[in-house]
Amino acid sequence: ETGVTQTPRHLVMGMTNKKSLKCEQHLGHNAMYWYKQSAKKPLELMFVYNFKEQTENNSVPSRFSPECPNSSHLFLHLHTLQPEDSALYLCASSQDARLSGANVLTFGAGSRLTVL
Amino acid sequence: SQQGEEDPQALSIQEGENATMNCSYKTSINNLQWYRQNSGRGLVHLILIRSNEREKHSGRLRVTLDTSKKSSSLLITASRAADTASYFCATDSGGYQKVTFGTGTKLQVIP
Predict the structure, then answer these.
(1) Interval A73-102: pLDDT, tens
(2) Which of A26, B30, B81, B110 reaches 20 to 30 Å from B94, CA-CA?
(3) Are the beta carbons of A17 and A10 closer than 8 angstroms?
(4) What is the CA radius of gyration of chain A?
(5) What is the pLDDT of residues B47-57, one digit of tens each?
(6) Max alpha carbon distance in chain B (Å)?
(7) What does the alpha-carbon distance between residue A85 and residue A24 come to, in Å, rounded to a whole number?
(8) Nearest-5° angle of CA B71, CA B75, CA B79?
(9) Alpha-carbon span B74 to B72, nearest angstrom
(10) How many Å apart are CA B90 and CA B99, to the nearest integer?
């Protein structure tokens, strides 16, 4: 265990479903991130929250909706997804997203999403 | 946008041999990090090297950084079957943490 827990580990959903991915960290970090990992593509940064404020939205379609109620929890709400959204969704945390130069990411194990 | 590119894309070696992976990037950086990912799992941080450092060691890992060539290498000495994983370089170019990753090198260590 890394200290970052993601649930569920696997999710299969239809294009009209609404589901959510959950991430929780027990490291006392103040920044949390969502990344998307598709086969043979670089990791794509989707969202960044620092001290509960969204600081980055990397041109992500509105069918992905993040929520960060506190520094320890991060959600990704999914609605009307497309088959090409099937991927491994990784949550990460770090001490503080402003600490450029020494900020190391701690990742969860990921949520494998399949959209039918 | 992608910053680091790893080379080779895949590498297969015998246990006990050394494995070398390279990373090239395009813009100036504050630091460069290497991560490892076991199949279908999250990434695990291995080592961070700052832009003013040239070489860093951690156990069987040796990382070099050449900012003039915008490249880094990761050397794993005396490889083990447990080192089988994908390895990613990640560059931090400053501002609000924008750590960007490449596509990774898939390493297979054959027992």
Answers:
(1) 999 999 999 999 999 999 999 988 777 656
(2) A26
(3) no
(4) 13
(5) 999 999 999 99
(6) 43
(7) 22
(8) 155
(9) 7
(10) 6
Residue A44 has pLDDT above 50, yes or no: yes
How many interface pairs between A and B have CB atoms less than 8 angstroms apart?
A: 74
SS3 A19: strand
Compute the nearest-CA separation of A62 from chain B (Å). 20
Cβ within 8 Å, pair A102-B94: no
Residues 73-102 of A with CB under 8 A from B: 88, 90, 92, 94, 97-102
What chain B residue is nearest to A90 in terms of C-alpha separation? B42
Q: Is the dihedral of CA A39, A37, B39, A99 positive or negative?
A: positive
Report chain B residues whose CB lies below 8 A from the CB of A103. Answer: 92, 97, 99
User: CA-to-CA distance for B24 and B91, rounded, in angstroms?
Assistant: 10
Closest Cα in chain B to A39: B103
The pair of structure tokens assigned to A52 is 């509960």
Q: Which two tokens stand for residue A106?
A: 């701690």
What DSSP string describes B20-81? EEEEE-SS--SEEEEEEE-TTS-EEEEEEEETT-SEEEETTEEEEEETTTTEEEEEE-S--G
Is residue A33 within 8 A of residue A58, CB to CB? The reply is no
